[in-house]
Amino acid sequence: MFSLAEVPGALQQRLINPIVRRAWDWKLPIPGDALLETTGRRTGQRRYTPVCDGLDGDVFWLVAQRGRRADWVRNVEADPRVRVKVGGGRHARWRAGTARMVEDDDPSERQRILARSGLMRRLCLRTSKAMNARPLTVRVDLDPP
C-alpha cells in the first residue's frame, strides 16, 4: 500500500509511463516528451523512461522528480552511458551521451529555463514539477551526431 505522499509517483510509474512508452512504440510520441534509455544496474537490460524533452543543442537536461530515489537515476549512477530519443514520428532519433548529476544546479530554475522553448515542453515540465519530491538536475552531454 502507498502512503498519500507516494500516490503521484505511483500513478505516474504504473499508469502514465506505460501509456507514454506505448505511444513511442507506436511512433506517436506525445509532443514535449522524450524517452531515456538506461542500463539496469542489476539486470544489465535496457530500461526506458519517459521524460520531458530537455534537448538544448548537444546537451540534454533532465530533472529527476524523486531525486536519487528514482530508479533511472540509480541506473545512471551505475552506468552513466545513456541514450535519449527525441523528435516525433519518423523524425524521432536516438542520441547517445554521458549523464552526470548536477548537485549545484537549481532544478526549479532549470525547469523554468527549459519551459521557455515551447508550449508542449512547458506542459510536460509543469506536469512533472507537480510531482517533485526532491528534484535533482541531470545533465547528459550528447555525443556528436
From TrEMBL:
InterPro entries: F420H2_quin_Rdtase, Split_barrel_FMN-bd
Top-level taxon in the UniProt lineage: Bacteria
Pfam families assigned to the protein according to its UniProt record, in alphabetical order: F420H2_quin_red
Gene3D superfamilies for the chain: Electron Transport, Fmn-binding Protein, Chain A (2.30.110.10)
Molecular function in Gene Ontology: oxidoreductase activity
Protein name from the UniProt record: Deazaflavin-dependent oxidoreductase, nitroreductase family
Source organism: Micromonospora coriariae
Organism lineage string: Bacteria, Bacillati, Actinomycetota, Actinomycetes, Micromonosporales
